[in-house]
Write a structure and sequence with these properties.
The protein is α/β, with parallel strands linked by helices. It contains 20 helices and 26 strands. Strand 6 and strand 7 form a beta hairpin. Bound molecules: ligand C2E and calcium ion (2 copies).
Length: 622
């Protein structure tokens, strides 16, 4: 405080009060007042430096402990007290270097030698990492830095110990490490951890069998796209939990990303054991998912591969499980496939198919062939089914068997269908130009995948329009599963096309789960009875009875009925007797190029004009 002296001068003083009322000798308060006027400027500046440094020391988050040249503690800041659990009111004089002992990495208590020059540097060199047990018993990680303090004559007068608290950094680091090894959504291990574990198992070199199971949720993408990511994320979390529930603690469960999971079992008894696990996982995932009062039904496809530790290291087992998963998806989903070398060959073949088609689409080597649809009564060719063909790089012409199977559930099939439809409309326009009165219909195939595409309806209508083709000249062929697998969206799309005048044919009827009710419920104009059925239409068998029912119902509903795969005269007789209005098959003609089809039409027209009967010998089957 400042005091005003009697002479009007101001004087800086230090006032200290001490309560000694309980003191037997004093029995009162002692107030001492000391002049704070400095003898000289030096003393004053030293005092300023001192108070500055003491302010800095107390504000530091690092723990600071200073000793004199004999190792007695002279200064302990607040942070050091916190770190070492020393109460604020314990005087410095009561503290010894023992109070600042550290735990070394093996958990031993280590008393620091405060002398930075001491040869016994028992916690490492100048700087070291160690732990301390803090006030509330929690472990803090610290680094220690010891510096000597010299006076102006360079004599050692003490040392300063700086404890830097590394706990937060260490925790952040651990968190980062954990993030690097875990999937954020599910908390499961991630691909990195999978690779690490595989390397560990391989390095251990035990003679046991390991198994990898690849898991993919069927139809997840659709749910995610239509119901949003929140629902999608929930689904993934539930799936992760169900998978975990079916596994042993030692099994590593990994989220690969998206809707893909991997299980790594370090040691399995046999392939059969791994398959049994996969089956359990499959059925756990097939249970309905209830999210926000909505119910979702999903299935999963799984691929299993096993390997001994020798084969593990290059992750071949993962590739194999992936191939098996691929096969499970291609073979209808909701199933488990075990890797074997046949499977690998099949997958290779499919790869080849995809490459063939992709290259054909990119290089205009897709062509359409046209197979006549013949009216049974008149023998007139009322239309054609457009069937896709590919000219390979080697110049060979190949049919769908060489490029379709592998692409039916990929985006490529949509590319194929669009390109095929475009070519088909082009052909339809040519035919309509030649026979404007009553042009032949062109039947175009669309896969179930294509029907679920958001742009399906607009692509069909716009393509027909661009070529100036009347929708009535086009018939879209779809299978029953294509109509129903895609859900209400597909049915709606088909109804829209039907409403604007496109014909719709139910293809391959009689295969799979055919239902007569579908003839009534679907917006179709034609039903095509499958070849496998047509070949069995002898007298008195169930196929015939069913065919009779189909034809009669189709007539009642005003639908056309086409018999597919009519190869022989016998087939033709059978379908005629049954009342099929139209036939298609090698008995009449195989699919042919547009120019061949046009030439044949021309020949028939000319023959009719000159009244020469058309040859009745069927062409040779291809
Ligand atoms: P599909 O729609 O059932 O077409 C009829 C298939 O039967 C054609 O095979 C045709 O060549 C063949 N076929 C015709 N008459 C006979 C016969 O008397 N006997 C026998 N055994 N077979 C006959 P193709 O051209 O190999 O086509 C196979 C399948 O590929 C088609 O079956 C269709 O599902 C699909 N496909 C063809 N083109 C396309 C397309 O552009 N898009 C889509 N999504 N699928 C297509
Ligand atoms: Ca067809
Ligand atoms: Ca068919």
């Amino acid at each position: 405080v400042r005091l005003e002296r009697a002479d009007g001068e101001w004087e800086r003083v230090e006032v200290t009060g001490t309560d000694l009322t309980d003191h037997p000798d004093v029995g009162g308060l002692v107030i001492s007042v000391r002049s704070a006027n400095y003898e000289n400027e030096l003393e004053r500046s030293m005092d300023r430096t001192e108070s500055l440094s003491s302010a800095v020391v107390s504000a530091l988050r690092d723990g600071i402990v200073a000793t004199d040249e004999f190792g007695s503690i002279t200064t302990v800041n607040e942070a050091a007290r916190m770190m070492f659990g020393i109460d604020a009111d314990t005087p410095v004089t009561e503290l010894t270097i023992d109070d600042f002992a550290l735990l070394d990495p093996s958990g031993r208590r280590v008393v620091i030698d405060p002398d930075p020059l001491s040869p016994t540097h028992n916690v490492g060199p100048r700087t070291s990492n160690a732990c301390v047990i803090a006030r509330h018993g929690d472990l803090r990680y610290v680094s220690l830095d010891r510096s000597p303090v010299h006076d102006s004559a360079d004599a050692l007068v003490g040392s300063v110990l700086v404890f830097h608290d590394l706990t937060a950094e260490r925790e952040a680091e651990a968190e980062l490490r954990s993030q690097a090894l875990h999937d954020q959504l599910t908390g499961l291990a991630n691909r990195r951890q999978l690779e690490q574990r595989i390397a560990e198992i391989a390095a251990a070199g035990t003679r046991t069998l390991s198994a990898a199971i690849f898991i993919d949720l069927d139809g997840f993408k659709l749910v995610n796209d239509t119901h949003g990511h929140r629902i999608g994320d929930q689904l993934i979390r539930i799936a992760a939990k169900r998978l975990r529930g079916q596994l042993r603690p030692s099994d590593l469960l990994v989220r690969q990303g998206g809707d893909e999971f991997v299980v790594l079992q370090a040691s399995v008894e046999s392939i059969a054991a791994a398959e049994a696990t996969a089956e359990r996982l499959r059925s756990a995932l097939a249970e309905p998912y209830d999210i926000h009062d909505q119910r979702f039904d999903l299935t999963a496809s799984l691929g299993v591969a096993v390997a001994n530790s020798d084969d593990l290291s290059d992750e071949v087992v993962l590739q194999h499980a992936d191939i098996a998963l691929y096969a499970a998806k291609a073979r209808g989903r909701d199933r488990v496939e075990i890797f074997n070398s046949d499977l690998a060959a099949a997958v290779q073949l499919e790869e080849h198919q995809r490459r063939t088609l992709r290259s054909a689409l990119e290089n205009d080597r897709l062509v359409m062939h046209f197979q006549p649809l013949v009216e049974t009564g008149t023998g007139r060719v009322q239309g054609y089914e457009a069937l896709a063909r590919v000219i390979t790089e080697d110049g060979d012409l190949i049919g769908p068997a060489g490029f379709m199977e592998a692409v039916t559930s990929t985006g490529l099939i949509w590319d194929l269908d669009r390109a095929a439809f475009n070519l088909s409309c082009e052909a339809a326009a040519v035919m309509a130009e030649l026979e404007p009165e009553n042009p032949p219909t062109i039947a175009c195939n669309f896969s179930s995948f294509s029907i679920t595409q958001p742009a399906f309806v607009s692509t069909v209508t716009e393509t027909a329009e661009r070529h100036g083709v009347d929708p009535g000249q086009i018939c879209i062929e779809i299978t029953e599963s294509a109509a129903f697998d895609g859900g209400p969206g597909s049915l709606e799309a088909l109804s829209m096309l039907h409403a604007v005048g496109f014909g719709l044919a139910l293809d391959d009827f009689g295969t799979g789960y055919s239902s007569l009710a579908h003839l009534r419920d679907l917006p179709i104009s034609t039903v095509k009875v499958d070849r496998s059925f047509v070949s069995k239409l002898g007298t008195g068998n169930s196929e015939r009875a069913i065919a009779e029912a189909v034809v009669s119902l189709a007539h009642d509903l005003g639908l056309g009925v086409v018999a597919e795969g009519v190869e022989t005269l016998e087939h033709l007789e059978n379908v005629r007797q049954l009342g099929f209005s139209t036939v298609q098959g090698w008995h009449y003609a195989p699919a042919m190029s547009l120019t061949d089809a046009l030439a044949e039409r021309q020949a028939v027209t000319n023959a009719a004009v000159t009244n020469v009967p058309v040859s009745t010998t069927p062409p040779e089957a291809p």
